[in-house]
Amino acid sequence: QKEVEQNSGPLSVPEGAIASLNCTYSDRGSQSFFWYRQYSGKSPELIMFIYSNGDKEDGRFTAQLNKASQYVSLLIRDSQPSDSATYLCAVIWPLIFGKGTRLHILP
Amino acid sequence: EAQVTQNPRYLITVTGKKLTVTCSQNMNHEYMSWYRQDPGLGLRQIYYSMNVEVTDKGDVPEGYKVSRKEKRNFPLILESPSPNQTSLYFCASSLSGRAFFGQGTRLTVV
User: Fold this and answer.
1) Which pLDDT tens digit goes with each residue over A30-47?
2) Are A48 and A60 in contact (CB under 8 A)?
3) Residue B104 is nearest to which of A43, A49, A88, comparing CB atoms?
């Protein structure tokens, strides 16, 4: 049974700072990793995916993967109040999610 | 427009009255899945389907049924709903793990 673990938070970060979100997974054979963002009362939406060890950057977002340690992280640079949401880490197959980390950006 | 359509958005029903929540996608995705979301418990997978006529149990399948007779549709059936099935339900379809979600169905069983 695959498991994905995340700290539920809330994680409070000042506006303009870097937010760091972490995730660990149980299945060493997992190959693909995803970060979804979910605003309160809304559906999750994909913001990043990563398949290879190392960093992947997309705008203010950077995903980091370390397969040897079985963890994935998401960095959000120059945090904005609009980044306040729950961030869900996911792996495949099947597509399963961690419980999510609530992020609160302090104006 | 690529989308996953769930209906209904809101539903209040009584214990034991069979109901179906529909889910349809227009992206020709092979993978579809149902989740329920409860406070503090995250998105828990109910059932998933890797393709037509192929379905598998997720983490919380008890009290639910699904079918996948055609690629675009993946209905969730509650044969005899109980109050502990009160939750927010999401359908998703996915290509290579990149999932699109429906708008959610908020179900209340009284």
Assistant:
1) 989 999 999 998 999 999
2) no
3) A43
